[in-house]
Design goal:
The chain has a single domain, classed as TIM Barrel, CATH 3.20.20. 46% of the residues lie in helices and 12% in strands.
Length: 300
């Protein structure tokens, strides 16, 4: 059975933490439910905004199992499974498949600089062969400003040719629309997700599959209006507002800012915790962010 295609407005969900800085499963389940009920078509679990690289393999699997056991629709979730060690990526990806998640978002193997294209191809070849699961749908995660290792167009094209629909798509978190457009142009029927809500107003015209964004944690309503209203004046207004809200959040350290706003939304200061080595927003910055965000959210 082919996994469902993920499309539309996808939140790169934040991960709430307990007092020991471990993932708080109960809060996470409630947040994911609120996102799906509040405008999100799907959720990206354990990505950069979800601080996944701060968690051990056992913690990540526990998060996956908590979501899988929650009754939430796993056909609306992709989960980050890429880490530098191949065997750990295999374990996380296979677990995601076995639990029933719709896709696995895979970082390139990072740490070593100047990884050759042949090495990236061989890595994904080995991952697909070792996972060996009929539900496997790999989404490449392009975030070279963090990893220092990109997914070059020629590598993506080779992998798509070798693995067909198993290589389902790509998330571009570089903010490089020229790159995203080059992937779309080269690979028809391959799902490319930019990382900004600003693209939602023209996503279908640009052949994008939607967007996967950190700030959709707090812009889901406006983002869905933009996605659903493409080509209409209302959709254009919603896309502009979602982009402006995103810009307000992006003026602060992103993970801490998203969590600060979620703490306000849920009236729950536990949400302010971030994983080390990140630092929560200071009270004055958090207040300035809240005020600026709420002013724009309340405006037409």
């Amino acid at each position: 059975m082919t996994p469902p295609r993920l499309r539309g407005v996808i939140a790169a969900t934040a991960t709430p933490l307990d007092a020991d800085l471990r993932p708080d499963h109960d809060r996470l389940v409630r947040h994911c439910r609120a996102l799906l009920d509040g405008g999100c078509d799907a959720i990206n679990l354990l990505g950069t905004t979800g601080e996944a690289t701060a968690f051990g393999v056992d913690q990540r699997i526990a998060v996956m199992r908590a979501i899988a056991g929650s009754g939430l629709p796993l056909d609306r979730f992709m989960v980050g499974t890429g880490v530098p060690a191949l065997e750990e990526t295999v374990l996380l990806t296979r677990t995601a498949c076995e639990l029933g998640f719709a896709g696995a978002l895979v970082l390139p193997p990072f740490y070593y600089p100047d990884v050759p294209g042949d090495g990236l191809v061989a890595y994904v070849d080995a991952l697909v062969a070792r996972v060996d699961h009929p539900q496997l749908a790999v989404y490449l995660y392009h975030i070279p400003q963090n990893t220092k290792v990109p997914w070059p167009l020629e590598v993506v094209a080779r992998l798509r040719e070798r693995h067909g629909a198993t290589l389902a798509g790509l998330k571009d978190s570089a903010g490089d629309l020229a790159y995203a457009r080059s992937i779309v142009a080269a690979l028809p029927d391959f799902d490319v997700f930019p990382s900004s809500e600003a693209t939602l107003g023209s996503a279908t015209a640009e052949c994008f599959a939607g967007c996967i964004s950190a700030t959709v944690n707090v812009t889901a309503r406006e983002s869905q209006a933009a996605w659903s209203g493409q080509g209409t004046p209302g959709g254009a207004v919603a896309a502009k507002k979602a982009a402006e809200l995103r810009a307000i959040v992006a003026g602060h350290p992103l993970v801490a800012a998203v969590k600060s706003l979620l703490a306000v939304r849920y009236r729950d200061d536990e949400w302010r915790r971030v994983a080390l080595p990140l630092v929560a927003l200071a009270a004055d910055r958090a207040a300035a962010l809240r005020d600026a965000y709420e002013r724009r959210a309340a405006a037409p």
